[in-house]
Sequence to fold (317 residues):
Amino acid sequence: MRHARFILIILAICVGGYAALLGLGRSNVYCSRSHSFFDTAPCFQAEAHGQTAEVLLAGDSSLLYGIDPAIVAAAGGGSTYNLGMIGPSFGFRTQKLIDRYLANNARPKAIVLYFAPWHLISDDRVVDPQWAPLAVYLLRHGSVGDVAGYLRVNPAALVELPPILWNGLVGSGARASAFRGELTANHGHLDYDQRGALKPLADDCSPAAYDHHGLDLADNRAALARLRAHCRTEGIPLFVYVAPIAVCDAQIDGVRLAYAGVADMTPQALPNRLFADDAKQRAEHVHPSPAGVAIFSQNLAGFIRSTVDARQVPPAP
Fold:
């Protein structure tokens, strides 16, 4: 009896401690103290208020790090807000991310989805193993239904997330404040090369070891069609811009085939030096080197001038 009682007490302490950590994560405590650069967008992008951008850019980390609204504006693309997220925190229930922005900011004249071709867009599936940013985002900003839906597809997070939160809580909060300030000052853009330590891909780089985690690239076609239809009901046109990939990966023909008739531009393979050599972090050669930010942003500005501005419709009153 005493043995059973001891076990129950230990279980109660563990469950109570985990519940307390999840509660702190749902409050602002974790985000205000996390020292992780990679928590910045999941924690704070959904808090954008009062933005007046002409074009909303929504997408994954290839957008978050790769597109600088200041460069887009200087290149004639007008004002933009970079609503970039990390991995599945963009792709899981994307419509809610966009709707939250629309509810708290001025209506843009258009929305551009800008994402790497390997990311799944789905309301009920997550295939990216880098799930922590999504869990942080949903815990802080998602509904109870969103969190429950996520736990159904990744129940292990219920056990694995609290230790991650605990690690963030031991920080001073100074780094979180600095990262948040950068996000705000740069209209959603973050400098990926925070420490100046990332090298660009070499001209003779080896192809990344792509693992699509069971994702057929065609899976995104229906999801993108639904997002277009939803934005159409809001009176806002939505455009699909597939982020560039490195030449050395030799994947561009498959990407173009997968997004034919869906993307509003022809996906590009660009020089290797424009991408960061971060394949060891499973980034698959889609994040920018410092030189890449300028080129990617200028190219997007050209797309806005030639395609978005030419086909925009006035926002609904």
